[in-house]
Automatic annotation (TrEMBL):
Domain Beta-lactamase-related: 18-375
Protein name: Beta-lactamase-related domain-containing protein
UniProt cross-references to InterPro entries, sorted A to Z: Beta-lactam-related, Beta-lactam/transpept-like, Beta-lactamase/esterase
Highest taxon, organism lineage: Bacteria
The species this protein was found in: Lentzea aerocolonigenes (Lechevalieria aerocolonigenes)
Amino acid sequence: MSIQGTCAPQFAEVRTEFERNFAERGEVGASVHVTLDGEPVVDLWGGVADPVSGQPWSEETIVHVWSCTKAATALCAHILASRGALDLNAPVVRYWPEYGAEGKDTTLVRHVLSHQAGLPALTSWLPAGAFYDWELVTSSLAAQKPLWEPGTRHGYHGLTFGFLVGEIVRRVTGLSLGQFFEKEVSGPLGLDFWMGLPEDLEPHVAPTIPVDPTQPGILLPSLFITAMTQPESVPGLMLLNNGGYMAPGESDSRAAHAAEMGAIGGISNARGLAGVYRPLALGGSYNGVRLVEESQIPQMSNVAVAGADAVVMVPSRFGLGFQKACDNAHLPANDAEGLLVSEEAFGHNGMGGSLGFADPKARLSFGYAMNRQGAGLGVNARGQSLVDATYRALGYHQTGGGTWYA
C-alpha cells in the first residue's frame, strides 16, 4: 500500500502504525494529521477512496466524519460564550423561547451541550427526508416532552445534538450553523471542513464503507442490538426515527451532504479535523485567528458529566460538547471501545472510528478520517494505534493500558 505525505522522524511510529492499519487491520482509505506547537509533524494519506471505481485516496479526499461534527458545533457555541453573546448557564428559552414547551423552560444551555437535555430522540414519527428540513426538526424538538428531567442524567444525543445547539447558535447570530462555522472557523483557518457541502466538491468525497453485520466476527454494540430488537426504545427511536437518514446509503446522498446537520453531517479529512483543534491546543488562537479566549478552554475540556449513559448503554464522559477520555476495555467485547487519550485532552470521535482532539498540555492536535467503518461506538484499533503512537512519541506512558500520562 502506497502511503503519501510527510512525517517527522520523532513520529515515525505513527507512520508505521498507519501502514499496519492497511496491512493488518483492514484499512481501505484514510488520512492522519498531527500538529505539535501548531506545526504539522504528521500529514499522511493512502489507500483507496472508492473501491468501486478504484479512485485512490488523495491529498484532496474528504469523507463523512459523522459525530466528529459535534465538536465543530460545540465550538460555535463556545465562540459565542467567549465573546459574551451566549451564557452557557442561562436557560435555553432566553435565546429560543419556543423551547420552553412541555416543562423544558428550566433546561440550561449547558444541559444541551452535555447531553443532559433529555431529547436524544423524537417520539412523534418523522416523514422521509425530515433531517434535511431544519425548521421541521427544530420545531419538533421545541414541542417535544423531554424523555427525562433535564439536568438529572446524561444520555448521548447522537442525532439531535446538532439541531439543538445549532438552533441556539442561529437564534443568537442570525446565521445558520454551517454559515457561522464557515465564517468564524473553517474560512479563517482555511480548513476542508463543511456542514453543508458545496455541490462542486462532491467528486472529492470518499463513499462510506459501512459495517456488514452478517460477516463473521462482527460484534455490534448493545446500542444497535437494542435498537433492532426494541424499536420503541430510546436507542430504537434515535436510530430509526430520523426520516430515513440512517438507512443504508442515505448518508452518502447529495441531499445528506448538502444539509446542515451539526451532530453527524460534517464532511472533512484528517487535516480538517486536526485544524479545528489546532487553535484550541494553543490557548484558543492560531496564526492570528482567535477562536476563543484562553479562559474558555477549561469550559471545553473539564468533565461535565460521567458514568452510565442513558442512551448508549455504556459509560461515557463529556465536557460541554466534547468527549473526554473513557476506558471501556473492561466491558464485553462488543462494548469495549472507548477513547484513550490524556486527561487534559478533549475532542470527539465519529461513528466507525474517525477522531479529532486537542491536548492543550501537550500543545497537540490530532485528526484521523477513513472510509471503512468499524462496528463499535468508540475509537477502534486503527485510530487508537495512531493515537498511542503519537503519545509514545511525546514520551507519555499508560497506567493499566488506559489513559495517557506525561
